[in-house]
Amino acid sequence: MQRFVWGVPVYRQRFSLLASRPATERFYRLIRLAMARAEHLREPFAGPLECDETTFGGARKGKRGWGAAGKVIVFGIVKRNGVVKASPIPAHDRASVMQVIQAHSREGSLYYTDEWQAYATLRLRGDHVIIRKEKGRPVGRDHINGIEGFWSYAKNWLYPYRGVPQKYFHLYLGEICYRFNHRSEDLKPLLIGLLKAVRAEEADLNLVQIP
Predict the structure, then answer these.
(1) Res 108: pLDDT
(2) What is the pTM of this model?
(3) pLDDT at residue number 134
(4) Half-sphere exposure of 99 (CA within 13 A, CB side)
(5) Segment holding 179, helix H or strand E
(6) Which terminus in the chain has less CB density within 10 A, N or C?
(7) DSSP assignments along 124-165, one per residue
(8) Average pLDDT of 156-182?
(9) For the purposes of burial, counting CB atoms within 10 Å of the CB of 167, is it exposed (0-12), middle (13-18) or buried (19 or more)?
(10) In what order do the strands lie in the sheet with 110-113?
C-alpha cells in the first residue's frame, strides 16, 4: 500500500516484491478500482467550470491528431480552484462531450472552453465563456489554465509506467483524478477506507468504464 501511495510501479519493485508480480499487479488494480469508483460517484459540479479534451498515448507512426491509432481521447472538467472529473470518451465529437457534461455538471453553471464548435450548445445549459488564443496564449483575462494544468499533471504521473494497458486506462485515470482531488491529504488512510467500502461483488474492473 505504501509503495502504491508513493507511486512506485510494480516493474520497479522486481527485486523487492512482497508477493508475486501478478498478485501485486492485481492488488494495484483493486486500489485503482476503488479510487475510480469513488470519483465516478462524485456529485456533479456547479459554478465556474473549465472544460477541455486531450489524448493520451505514446507517439506512433501514421495518422496524427484525434484519430491517431492507439490514442485514448479524454474529456475533463475542472471546478475553478477545486476538483476535477475526467473520463475517456469514444470519439472527439459533440455528442460524446455533451454526454459527459450533462452527467457531471449542473445546469446554470458557468462554462469556460476553447473555440471548438462542439461547445456551442453550452449556452443552453448556462453561461458560456469562449477562450480565444493567439500564439498559444489566452487573449484577455479569461483562461482554462486549471484543466490544462491537470492534463500536464496526469501525463507526468503516467510517464514512469512506460505505457498503460488500454483496457485498464480508465482505472489509471480514476487514480490520477483521486490523487489530484486529494493532493493535500495523506492518501494511505483514505485508500484503506476505500478498500473496506468496496464489496466483493462490486470489484468489477469495468464498473466505472465509459463505453
Answers:
(1) 96
(2) 0.89
(3) 74
(4) 13
(5) helix 169-181
(6) C
(7) GTSEEEEPPEETTEESSS---HHHHHHHHHHHHHHGGGS---
(8) 93
(9) exposed
(10) 84-88, 72-79, 48-56, 110-113, 127-130
